[in-house]
Structures are given as structure tokens and as C-alpha cells.
Design a protein that fits this description.
Elements lengths: L1 E6 L3 E8 L2 E9 L6 H12 L6 E6 L2 H14 L5 E3 L20 H13 L4 E6 L2 E7 L5 E8 L1 H11 L19 H28 L8 E5 L3 H4 L8 E2 L3 H13 L1
Parallel strand pairs: 1-4, 4-5, 6-9, 9-10
Antiparallel strand pairs: 1-2, 2-3, 6-7, 7-8
Helix pairs in contact: 1-2, 3-7
């Protein structure tokens, strides 16, 4: 069984693959204060009797990556491990001014998107930030856009406006909110769906100027399910996209 680990700023997502099929998956909060031993307790508690024969991991949180590296060497030293970082073969060309700036989760997403889609595509990853990643027909990561995520936008609004508060992120009765809660729900859900559609159309026109409709749009991330039903441009939903990319990169390096 291959254990894949995606450490994000807010959540850590884990999944176990048997072949190319994902079986169990978990989502836990990321805490940069956790030690290697605390990580080991969490991982072993979740994995229970699942035999781990390989591990692939990526992290956008340097402090967690350090402890994760220590934990893997201490508790899984006999298990083949691939950490996505400079020097690891990903199969993804990075066409950027400074390739080292690109988050490893975005590289994993690009690898998985190219594997799943025959042609140019845009990955919309709904996480702490909303990432728009552009992948060329050859599978190169050619850039994209970053925007504030849904939850941090709502947190900022509630913190800066005295009469506003955090609300449950569900669709209101109508886009025209009849009370403060519904108005916030409408602004967040339909506002972010409109942001996605607007960004995707601009990025598609830049990515495939001769045929923008040929660009497929893959949504992923913990908050994707909130928005995709209200988006006009998302063509595919892959909640485990980053984990699929980790599996592909592990196979390439072992």
C-alpha cells in the first residue's frame, strides 16, 4: 500500500493507494507545532493495520516538512519514501521565472491533471488560498494565479466588520439575501463562483488563444464542493488530485 501525504497550511490530507486506486483517505488539521513523535502517533492511529509499503509526501509548510522528514526516518526508515522537493523527478516542466517558488502541491496537481486530461487544463485548488494552475498540452506548469481562499476571506470580513459574523457555508434561498446570514452566504458562494468563472475564462484565453473552450477545468481542494455546483466553467471534480499526483511522482522515482 502506498501512503500519500499532502501537508497544506490548514489541513493535511492522507490517502492510501492499492495500485492506482485510492482506498482510505483522511483529512486532519495541520499544526506547525507538532513534533515528529506526535505526527507518528497520529499516523499510526489512523493507519492501524494497513501495511505501508511506500510513502510519497509534499508540504507547503516548512516547519511541518522538517518534522515529517524526521518522523519518516525514525518510524518508517525501512519504507521507500519520496518527498517532493528540488531534485525529484516529477515529469512536470516548470515554465516560471523562478521554479523554486512553485509550491510542491501545485506541481503534484499539474502532474495529475496532465495524466487525467488530454490537452490544456486549468486546476482550481480551493484551499487556504484559491490557486489557479495552468497546465500546457505537454504537461508543463506554465503559471497561474493566486487569490485569497474562501475561509480566510470570511474570517477577515467577520473580523473587520462589527455587525458581520461567520456563517455556515451553504446556498441561501436566493441570490438576493433577505437577512445578514443569507446575504453573506450569497456573497461568498456566488461571489467565489463568479471569481472562478471570470479567472478561468481569462486564463483559458491566454493558455489556448486559438481555442479557449478546449481548456478543461479541474476543481480540487477541501472547499471545492461548496462552489462547483454554482460554477459555469468547472468541467471535472477530483477531490484527490494532489494525492494522485503524489502517486505518479512516486512511481516515476521508484
Amino acid at each position: 500500500m502506498l501512503l500519500t501525504i499532502d501537508v497544506g497550511n490548514t489541513n493535511t490530507v492522507m490517502g492510501v493507494f492499492e495500485g492506482d486506486q485510492i482506498g482510505h483517505s483522511w483529512r486532519i488539521k495541520s499544526d506547525a507545532r507538532n513534533t515528529a513523535d506526535e505526527l507518528a502517533l497520529t499516523f499510526r492511529g489512523l493507519l492501524a493495520d494497513i501495511p505501508v509499503t511506500g510513502i510519497a509526501a509534499c508540504s507547503t509548510v516548512p516547519a511541518v516538512l522538517r518534522e515529517l522528514r524526521t518522523m519518516l526516518s525514525r518510524y518508517y526508515d525501512d519504507v521507500p519514501t519520496v518527498l517532493v522537493e528540488p531534485g525529484v523527478r516529477t515529469g512536470v516542466g516548470i515554465v516560471m521565472d523562478n521554479p523554486k517558488e512553485v509550491g510542491t502541491d501545485r506541481i503534484c496537481n499539474a502532474a495529475a491533471a496532465h495524466h487525467l486530461v488530454d490537452g490544456p487544463c486549468v486546476v482550481v485548488d480551493f484551499g487556504t488560498s484559491t490557486n489557479f494552475d495552468c497546465v500546457s498540452p505537454r504537461g508543463d506548469f506554465v503559471g497561474g494565479a493566486l487569490a485569497p481562499g474562501i475561509e480566510i476571506s470570511l474570517d477577515a470580513l467577520a473580523a473587520r466588520a462589527a455587525q458581520l459574523r461567520k456563517v455556515e457555508l451553504v446556498a441561501p434561498r436566493s441570490p438576493i439575501g433577505k437577512n445578514t446570514v443569507e446575504a453573506l452566504q450569497s456573497g461568498i458562494l456566488y461571489g467565489f463562483a463568479g471569481q472562478v468563472d471570470g479567472m478561468v475564462r481569462r486564463l483559458s484565453a491566454a493558455l489556448a488563444p486559438d481555442d479557449p473552450p478546449s481548456v478543461q477545468v479541474i476543481a480540487t481542494g477541501g472547499l471545492a464542493a461548496l462552489v462547483i455546483d454554482h460554477s459555469e466553467t468547472v468541467t471535472r471534480y477530483e477531490p484527490d488530485l494532489t494525492l494522485i499526483g503524489l502517486r505518479l511522482i512516486y512511481d516515476r522515482n521508484t
